[in-house]
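Re: the 141-residue chain
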Amino acid sequence: MASKKKSFSTPQIIVFIIIILSMLTVIIAAVCTLVFTPENIVKTKISELSADYYENYIYEKFDFSDPSSENLVNFIQKYEENGLTITTLRQLLLYDHQKNADVAPFLKKYCDEDTTFINFYPEHPYSKTSYRIEFVYSCEF
């Protein structure tokens, strides 16, 4: 007994491809709708601005040339638990000659720039990227 191999015609293959592409389009659209919400975009942008602010502004204000310095460790340790001074969204948008002015209208659309707060907590070994951030959002999505 010889087995017959079933082959598909060109129109059947085209219909199958169209169905697969349609399914992929719907799945991609659903994922994008869930991921690219205003809330996710705002929180991601504030997180990026906060990291830039700490690493390129706050960190540069301290003399961290010798991170193992006893004076530095004693000074910065007191901020590990309570954090540095609270920073508002307004400060993030205005610092460094308003370098973040391009995102300000979008963030202000959803968040109050005076009551959205960020607090930075330096962590050992007190390097440029050894810190954690806590956010208090005053936003409506």
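The mean pLDDT is 88.
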